[in-house]
Task: structure prediction
Amino acid sequence: MRKFGLFVFLTGLVYARTFATAEDTVAQKSSASAYQYVPNTSIFGVFDPLSVQMYDKKFALIPYSDLYTASNCFSVKFIQNFFGSGFITDEMKDLANSKLSDLNTIGVDFYSGLWMMMRTKDNDNAYFIAGVDYNFEESGQFTRDLFHIVFYGNYDLQDQTADLTDSKFSLTSVMEYKVGFMRVFDAHYNKVTFGITGGLVQGLSGLDIKTKYGTLYTADDGRYIDLDYDFSIKTSGENKPSLSSFTGAGFSFDAYAQLYLQGPEITINAMIQDVGAVFWSNGPLKISADSTLHFEGIEVNNFFAATDETAAGNSDSLLEILGVVKEENVFSQALPSRLFASATKKIGNDAYFTLGTHFMFNTPYKPLVFVQAGRSFTPMRFTASVNAHTGGYGGFNVGLDLSKEFGSFLNLRIGSNSILGVVAPDSFTGAAGYATAVVRF
Amino acid sequence: MFRITKGLALLLLIVSIFSSCRRNLESAWDTRYITPLITGALTIHDLVPDSLTIIEDDNAVTLVYKSELLDYDLADEAIDIPDTSVTYFVSLDSLTLDDQTVTQNISLGTLAAALPFPYGAIIIAANGTAIPIDPIVDVSTGIFPIDATTFFETATFNQGYLDISVKNGLPVDLTDVTIVLTNAGDGALVAEQYFPLIPAGGVPVTQTTDLAGLTVEGHLNAQITHLSTPGSADPVLIDTSDLVIIDMTARDMELQEAVAIFPDQNLVNNANDVQYDMGGPEFTLMGIEEGFVVIYVVNTIQDSIHIDYNIPYATDETGEHVHIVTTVPPGSIASPTIVDEAFPIAGYTIDLRGSDGNSVNTFYQEFTAGIEYSGVPTFITLDDSLKVIYGLEGIIPSELRGYLGQYDIAASDTVSGISLFDQFEDGEIHFGDINIDLAIDNGLGAGGNVVINQLGGINTQTGEVIYLNCPEVIGQAIPINRALDNPYVPGYTTITMNSDNSNINDLLEAFPDKLFYDVDMHVNPDGNTFNYQDFVLNTSKLNISLNVNMPMAFSASNLTLRDEFDVTVDAGSGTDGIGDIDLTMYADNSFPLDATIKLIFKDAAGNALDSLDFNGQTIDPGEVETTDCRVHTPTHTEMHQLIDGELKDAIINATKAEVTVVFNTQSLPPCSDIVRIYSDYELSFQLTGDINYTFSTSDF
Result:
């Protein structure tokens, strides 16, 4: 309730300011260099050609970078310490434990790239688009018991069966090289924009772990352990990720669409990115096992003859005990594809309100719904927005988006869709940040 | 063990979402795991191998063990069969040709034609009529060619004779006849014979020429150089077909050289007895396990040499005797041919009684080397030679029979001890009543006796030396039984030793890891008492062993098992995260022995770093029930040891560990202190760990 109250307060604050100072500037209809803010399709800092204002320029460079991490249970501090270099305290674990559901999620997405847009010679409404992306997506889904085993151990699960079923983890790290075009159909009243890009995917590293079924029973006093498991691990191999070599290769494409309805001054944006797959073929490895194991310790049949083996142990013998099959198999991995859709209503001259959604396929991502409200300060060529969302890898969070034009040459945009985790990392479960720029020539 | 624990945790992590190998930064968190580490069971078979135990019907364990002292190969060590090859160098002093006869017929017509006019014309004109014949004085005939090439083309004689026999079929006597025989090629005179009278009527007259030193060609010319006749006063019937028959017979020919068609003839023809010098044994029969007839021939003769070798009294299981036939191709003096062959005779049995059947160590052999009639002229000279080596070589008998002779065998050595106790390194053990057999297996089919001069054991760990003190055995000439045949059974002789007649208990309880002995064996000390019925097989051995067959029952005081093994704890992979570990040992013991366990961790130099002994706690013994002095219910023991601090570091840094288990027997009155061990006794154990572990993402 406190979080919701904070959101309402911030949203109300922005709206009050917006309606008080709105001016009659519409970006799409503005003159060549007049400031006109075009709301973004999403509350992420990804490449969004639908929101790029070219003014009277022929060419634009768009660098961007976006980091998003969230979980339904892990606090930002927990995630920082886990992915960073910190100690995960019992308090952090207890907090996460208190938020666990039957199936839990965590994800870390990082996107960065450099794009260019160029008007075609013959048609000011047609654009040639090309760019390079680096996409890193790491996400997992895990059971309450798996969390417990990993972060607490199995000591207090004696005489209990831990359920590990449906736990999974995936990682993709790829470079993408794309080209495409975008066309604006201007009916001098309403306006429709379509764009498409596509290209080559350079796989850097990939990992796909799935546990179709898994249980672990720990007997009292640890006298034995029963494992029942069916899991597979596919990895792109031990090759060090390098931009100069292809660990995998694939394809992907993006599509963009925008409908601007001048009458109600509503803009509807939709874009889908990274639809494709990568094929890991340079030394991939598949490890799988579908078995049950009753483990009472390494068996020593002849105490005085077998002690060497007992003391030495080794991973090979452990893998043999587990019945693991190792094989080198080319495998494909669907890219984490992102769908964005939003509708923005311009209110007055300087204010707008956006309702949108975001979903990422091939991950444990849950549909994310967001609202965003913003106010432009035309003389300052500056726009501020606040947003709130729920879904994704985590739960509720709020964010802030700031956009500033420097003449018609440069636009800078910074923001976060999950600012609560930044403000209070010990308590909130998501954190994000992004920065984009548009440099026009 | 820590690798196992970590491995289990890794398994859990590997299916988790957090185990990316691609993080470079470290994060960490504390966990607590409880897991089984080691499980196992110590049974009687871990202390004594299965092969050394017999499980009785009531599960009581009996130890059966054979400690071999002496394993003497009698056939290999005592009997050697020498090679018997002989060498012959053969020159052709015996080169011969068969007697040959050439007949030359001369008709009256032919003879008359050769007479001077008018003698011949008158005789020819009177053919068929009867006329008186005037005397004819000293006329000669022409040359008559003689072809003897069917016998030789040329031959130089060291010896030989040519008999010229003339039969007169004419109606008048012939007188003063001279016949000359010359080589057609070089014209050399071969023979010239004078016949004073060759009477009419067919009675042949013979003159002989010595051919020694002559070279005779196959193409000869014969001529009657002088011929006279007194004629006849009365008319005689003239028939020009009447013949003078001249037979020329070459006989008793021994050649220096010849190009001839030689008849079958042996150049080497030997048949002899070969006697082995065995130095005492008198064998009458020998079976061949391995060996060869070797035949080596160097031939300069330009004809094939046919070899025939026989040992008539060497037969195989089908009754076939050794018979070897081989051929040496033609050679020459400049380029002799060599044949070097070895014919295996494994499986044959040779009668060693010789050709007369009354000898010993003797076999009879026949060898011939000769040429055969081929119908083709061949040049052979007495300068040709034949070198022949033949005989038996590399003979390894499978059996020998007869009289083995009198000989002594002395053997002394130090051998491995009684491995029943190899695993025990310290402590005291006392056995109950035990019987140990000194077993002597004699593989010879001959009588004898054995003298054990000395027998004892050494514990090299303690330096203790125990000499067997058994007056019935030590220093006594122990008669040993001879092996029996058909079927073959070694002669067994057994002497039982126990605590009543020896100090055998002291010997065993010293845990000897070495045994030493000094033994003499005397074969046939009384001579040939079995009248050549002794035998020895190639498998015959003299074996002396200590045969332990005793109930596994003992009392033990600090009986110690110790072993050292490598420890490989990869200190670079996650061991930093290991915190305190509460090790728990669960033991269920049905042995009537208590046990303490101690693990000493050592560095590479063997220095002790620290030890783990569960605080000296003892695994309780199984409780013996007084009704049958057996343990029926295992005793449960739970022991704890906290591993932290220096002990943990020692385990991680150790490269070796020494495990020591010390046993002490426990019993209750009225049961004896000597406890009986049953096969269903077991010490099962399990080691679990309650492990505090600080995970670090850098571990993965």
Q: What stands out?
A: The two ends of chain B are 19 Å apart (CA to CA). Chain B has seven helices and 46 strands. Residues 1-25 of chain B have pLDDT under 50 and may be disordered. The first strand of chain B starts at residue 28 and ends at 43.
